[in-house]
Amino acid sequence: MQNAIFEPSNLPTLDPPNPITHALLESPTIPAIGAIVLGTVLLLALRSRGQTKPAVAVFLGGLLLGIGVFTSAALVTTDREHLTESTAQLVNAAAAGDSTTLTTLLHPDVRVRARFASPSSRDDIIALCQTRAARIVEEIIVRETQAQVMGERTARTMVKVRVHTGMGQNISWWMIDWERATPDSDEWRATRIEPVWIQGYDNPAG
Q: According to the model, what pLDDT value does residue 72 have?
């Protein structure tokens, strides 16, 4: 049984992203700076040997490579980045009872499996958010998000949130299954939502 007060260390996790795609398109700072630093080091090394023209060429190559990595990352939004953004939007919309955003992000037949409530449609979830969550949630913060594309049209995210209410704060982890209409679509809709761990609750999924 998982600890209901302190966050367990054995919570399920999603598969990590492809390291090359992640480094070049999702977290480009280190490889881009690395390319520029390498170019600078080679510049100094070649200049010390009197090879000025090759030194400048190598430095410019490293500089252009670094800029190219930053530019590519800025122009390309990966599926994981779309899912991470959609997850954050869903969390905030649920806390605020934002029916417009929830309608966009939830599949009509979305299911929630939870011990304390199990709405079985988008309309039920929206009603629950408006009548319960929006009345008690003062602030909600997304602390961490994991995202994994399972297939061409299916994906999953896990999100850690901290909720502030008039009675204090609570931390929880949620698993969300997503689906999109076509393999090249950027619009994901949640099909299943389940609590993985909620502080203070034993077996929150029921």
A: 87
